[in-house]
Amino acid sequence: MGPKNDLARFVTREEIEPVTNALRSAFGLDLFGFDVLVKEGGNGKEILVVDVNYFPGYKEVPNL
Asked: Residue 3 and residue 60: Cα distance in Å, rounded?
């Protein structure tokens, strides 16, 4: 992934935050990563979670 604002082209914070909260609640995790597919169509935007990582990588986090 390129610059950190690339994700904003696909989903907003307001759209992804409920997904994050649902995953946090469902799995009882505080620190995790997840991958999504974004599908846009006649019914609007659909966010599909395809992977949840309980020990995420940090390769794209600056200054680590």
From this structure: 10
Phi, psi dihedrals of residue 25, rounded to the nearest 5°: -70, -45
One digit per residue, the tens of pLDDT, for the chain of length 64 reads 445 555 557 889 999 999 999 999 999 998 898 999 999 888 888 999 999 998 877 777 777 5
CA nearest 26: which of 54, 58, 47?
54
Bridge-partner residues for 47, per DSSP? 38
3 state SS of 51: strand
Which stretches of 1-64 are DSSP H helices? 13-27
Task: Tell whether pTM > 0.85.
Answer: no
The residue assigned the tokens 């935007």 is: 45
